[in-house]
Amino acid sequence: MPRFAANLTMLYNEHAFLDRFAAAAADGFLGVEYLFPYAFPAQEIAARLRDHGLQQVLFNAPPGDWEAGERGLACLPGRESEFRAGFAQALVYAEELDCPRIHVMAGLAPAGAERAALQATYEANLAWAAAQAQSVGREVLIEPINPRDIPGFFLNRQDEAHRTVQAVGAPNLKVQFDLYHCQIVEGDVAMKIRQYLPTGRVGHFQIAGVPMRHEPDLGELHHPYLFDVIDEVALASGWQGWVGCEYRPQRGAVPGGTRDGLGWMRC
Ligand SMILES: O=C(O)C(=O)[C@H](O)CO
Ligand SMILES: [Mg+2]
Questions:
Q1: How many helices, marked H, and strands, marked E, lie in the chain?
Q2: Which end of the chain lies in a sparser environment, N or C, as judged by fewer CB atoms within 10 Å?
Q3: In this structure, what CATH number is given to the domain that contains residue 189?
């Protein structure tokens, strides 16, 4: 089986954020990820990781004004200095949390903007971020996201993400391969794992049941088969990353619900 990390933004919502670390460790997780740590002092989160023997495997750089609907700044001309300041803050947290990967969200394509101009800004920002991250031994990840969950999101497809990584050409810029988004946008998920994992450009996986984003054993994707494919290709290619469990537990509507829905992990 792959190594699974609990996404603490979506799992364990029956607990306050800082208590989700203990809950994930109690269920056997060794790694955690989440979207944003910035509402809490990094030292406080680091203490939770230490106390519960957890590894921080991923979090996101600041996305702009999330409450106002922004979903990243990386492709937005004119927002470069805000992008850089946010990424610098992410690096400070990554140091304190000993986290090897930072996810940079692309952002929403502004209505009427020329795609080529957005792509040029995206690549320039990613090149800058990758250079900053390289100097302190961290990876930058980009993630294609389906346009139903985030209408207007700039990056939707795996091939576009891989082309961007190749165009930037930084060894520590990689793709966050979320199988949930891939199934919704393009399908053929197992073959895409076989296509992309051996390239060395996949930095992380994430999973959820499709289409409702509940537990992986609910919905149209057969995860036991996909886990076997990941294991097989990882073994052949030497890949040693994590699979983030980024779903909203359906059984989480009741106290203890996340744990009740973890049966899929033991199949
Ligand atoms: O939504 C996802 O799939 C993510 O991984 C992002 O980090 C947040 O949008
Ligand atoms: Mg994801």
A1: 9, 8
A2: C
A3: 3.20.20.150
| pLDDT single digits (tens) 123-142 | 999 999 999 999 999 999 99
> Of the residues 8, 32, 33, 35, which should be mutated to test ligand 1's pocket, given the most ligand atoms within 8 Å of the CB?
35
Rounded to whole angstroms, the Cα distance separating 149 from 167 reads: 27
Q: Supply the residue whose CA is at minimum distance from atom 1 of ligand 1.
A: 145
Burial class (CB in 10 A: 0-12, 13-18, 19+), 111: exposed
Distance 185 CA to ligand 1 centre (A): 15
Close Cβ partners of 260 (under 8 Å, ≥ 6 residues apart): 249, 251, 254
> Residue 141: what pLDDT?
99
Nearest CA owner, ligand 1 atom 8: 35
pTM tops 0.95, yes or no: yes
Give the range of the structural domain holding residue 71, as residue numbers without chain letter. 3-266
Letter for the amino acid at 77? Answer: P
Which residue in this structure is represented by tokens 């990840």? Answer: 141
C-alpha to C-alpha distance for 155 and 71, rounded to whole angstroms: 11
Instruction: Give the chain's domain count.
Output: 1
Instruction: Report CA(181)–ligand 2 centroid distance (Å).
Output: 7
Cα–Cα distance, 86 to 137 (Å, whole number): 18
Q: Under a CB-based contact definition with an 8 Å cutoff, are residues 201 and 165 in contact?
A: yes
Q: For residue 143, report the distance from its CA to the centre of ligand 2, in Å.
A: 7
* For residue 17, pLDDT beyond 90: yes
Distance CA 191, CA 106 (A): 25
CA–CA dist 110, 151 (Å, integer) = 11
Q: Would you say residue 156 has pLDDT above 80?
A: yes
Question: What pLDDT band is residue 257 in, cutting at 50, 70 and 90?
Answer: confident
